[in-house]
Amino acid sequence: NAGVTQTPKFQVLKTGQSMTLQCAQDMNHNSMYWYRQDPGMGLRLIYYSASEGTTDKGEVPNGYNVSRLNKREFSLRLESAAPSQTSVYFCASGLVNNEKLFFGSGTQLSVL
Amino acid sequence: EDQVTQSPEALRLQEGESSSLNCSYTVSGLRGLFWYRQDPGKGPEFLFTLYSAGEEKEKERLKATLTKKESFLHITAPKPEDSATYLCAVNTGFQKLVFGTGTRLLVSP
Asked: Residue A42: which of B94, B96, B99 has the nearest Cβ?
């Protein structure tokens, strides 16, 4: 009964390095999302995928790219990490438009 | 601009001391208001969805209510295990979920 699985849980990068955050869900959901959570700010949407084969920008997409590899998997890539991307990243999935999202346990990313 | 404001930022209660958390919103079109619970180091966990003014939902010691301008999360006789951050979010359109910054609740035995 895994739900939404994110890897890694923790990561430290140097400015300019690249990395990919992985996310997989086993609930057969159509929609998947990437959020970031910063102190004093609400969860902010980076990118989403309403269905397999589609991706769209959210509120804060700059500096990120995504891939919806198949119905289960949705990855987030930082091509050239910046200190402003230090945050906790959450992947989420849901059946239809924003109804009852299921979140992963998060990736704590620090960019030095 | 769509906005969600939660108050208070933090709340400390004694076990059994009932209280309410507030979520006020200004949005162009409400398509649902959500409450989530988030424990430290974990992702948010869904609690309730409310769609129209006057609607109420209950789960154990929690009851969520909705008016045209705000939602309340009432906590009756809380226990220490209710300690968490409670997040409010509103759905304003296709794939547009706006989150508040949350209320950190601490319930002491």
From this structure: B99
CA distance A30 to A98: 11
Q: Do B43 and A105 touch (CB under 8 A)?
A: yes
Helix, coil or strand: residue B82: helix
B10 touches chain A (CB under 8 A): no
pLDDT, one tens digit for every residue, chain A (112 residues):
679 999 999 999 999 999 999 999 999 999 999 999 999 888 999 999 988 889 999 999 999 999 998 999 999 999 999 999 999 999 999 987 667 899 999 999 999 9
Contact between A105 and B97 using a beta-carbon 8 Å cutoff: no
Six token digits for residue B77: 């006789």
Output the CA–CA distances (angstroms, integers) from residue A59 to A42, A106, B21, in the order listed.
12, 19, 26
Residue in B4, B41, B46 nearest the CB of A101: B46
Question: A102-103 and A87-94 as β-strands: parallel, antiparallel, unpaired?
Answer: antiparallel
